Amino acid sequence: MGEEMQMNGYEEGLGAGDEDQVLKWEAGLPNADDLTPLSQSLIPPELALAFSISPDPSRTMLDVNLASQNTLSNLCRQSQPFSSNHLKSLPSFAEDPSHDPLVVEGDENEPESTTNDGSDVRKVRRLDGAEVADSTMQTENCDNNNNDDNSARTLKKPRLVWTPQLHKRFIDVVAHLGIKNSVPKTIMQLMNVEGLTRENVASHLQKYRLYLKRMQGLSNEGPFSSDHLFASTPVLQSFHESGNSGHMPLPMYHRPLLPMPVLGIAHGHGHMTIPVGNPPAPATHHGFESHPYNISREQQQDWSATGRTASAAPSTMICMEETSVPAIQSQISLFIFLSACK
DNA sequence: CGCCTAATAT
DNA sequence: AATATTAGGC
């Protein structure tokens, strides 16, 4: 190890040797199966919010992914300056002028993040440009990368890409809140993703609702109700009789299994979109562990050990304790969905 | 006002 | 199709 790290002559030009290196490199990469399980979530959103746990610049695999992505798709231009990840913790506006305008200028969502003491609720979010820019604006960038460097201040933020990870987080939060209590602002806060704006969430939520609606329609009129499993959960009713005002604040949607596409993490056309946003901040506690976006499978397994000494119980159970039932359902739904996708 | 949602635009 | 932006209504 270490030998490959020093591929320097690289910029000299592309040669046969490079190809080999690339292949080798690729071989060493985890395959889709390994990458997929990038889940985290569970519990923390609420706690995080409650405790004002703020996001911190933790990043790891994400950057790796990002970097690899850049490497791969970067044939037509220089790589993104994702080195700027560090500054994410500042609300400021001009940390990184290069592609920062997105800062939160247009985002006044949190005017009151305020200045109380100046050190807590930094919902401060901003997307990393790089994250989104890459997969979404790629084409454009390639074509004309000349107009953006000078008009930096008027730059528009790149479109948010709802990566499977992001979507999962979204789903988890919605599950916690219950579809009924899920409104953009709240979701956004619980998701706790830097750079995510209320508008982003609102838009996605709208889409998600449409999706649910479709689902609902289908499940009702479909040949036969195939998912009693979920239907039997305490969830359904809330959906059905919305009249039940103010009772269990934990309503929830019932199985979102169909293709709200975003979940198609799997391998598709070797396209691999894992740009993920900036992970929220977890803040690992003793008994609890919040998982940032970037946890790998190993880490995931870890938690059962970490979260508590009970080793056998399903992670879900452990985390849930009494935190929220919906969370489990969310997990299950996701699982089912993923299975179904195959 | 701020936020939410539906409609519309890109 | 996926997101963003706008328009209206609380």
From TrEMBL:
UniProt domain HTH myb-type: residue ranges: 162-213
Predominant cellular place of this UniProt entry's protein: nucleus
Presence of the UniProt keyword Iron-sulfur in the record: no
Chain coiled-coil ranges: none
GO cellular component, one term: nucleus
Compartments (UniProt record): Nucleus
Matches recorded under SUPFAM superfamilies: Homeodomain-like
Residue span of region Disordered: 86-152
Protein name: HTH myb-type domain-containing protein
